[in-house]
Amino acid sequence: MSARAGITAVFFVNGALFATWASRIPALSIKVGASTGDLGLALLAPAVGAVVAMPLVGRLLPGRSSRMFSRLALAGLIGAILLPALARSVAALAGALFVVGVTNSAMDLSMNAQGVSVERHLQRPILSSLHAAFSFGGFAGAGLGALAAALDVAPLAHFAAAALLFGASGLIATGPLLAKRNATTALAA
Question: In a 10 Å sphere around its CB, with 0-12 CB exposed, 13-18 middle and 19+ buried, how is residue 49 labelled?
Fold first, then answer.
């Protein structure tokens, strides 16, 4: 597998994992007894997590390997994806979604930095195709979520299966990523 194929798979997996929990929002809302307003507030948590994580990861990533960061962030997201299904209250759901937002944001920054590195290595633009892979991953995750909901699969079983399927594939896909350290300007590109 080439670095380009690897980073394409990582983008796909990120989209699939994000869509996994999002596709089960109705079941999660019922499980924690959230009102419409409560659910709206809980759904702000991933964005808050992203806002918190971006500047931190943005400071740590330059000068370090985005392959390593992609692996770490993906491992974190694999674990975080289970947390919303374990929530028993609106506050716990919000906390779980905050963690999903932090890990997803770390993954977003690291995989985009790797995408820039691969793009520079290939000396041709590929970022738009990587973002398309994210979208296709979203379709796959949402489609499996719709199937799981139709079959009345519990969110925890669904999320665990998705974490295993997509997570293992994603971790394998990080193997051929470029190991060189990122330039400080990689995130600005």
Answer: buried
Going along the chain from its start, the domains and CATH numbers come out as: 3-175 (1.20.1250.20)
Tokens (6 digits) for 113 = 């930095």
Average pLDDT for consecutive 10-residue bins of the chain (189 residues)? Answer: 93 96 95 95 96 89 83 95 97 98 95 93 94 97 97 97 95 89 44
Global pTM reads: 0.90
- DSSP, residue by residue, 138-156: HHHHHHHHHHHHHTT--HH
Give, to the nearest 10 degrees, the angle between helix 90-122 and helix 127-150: 150
Supply 150's token pair. 């139709």
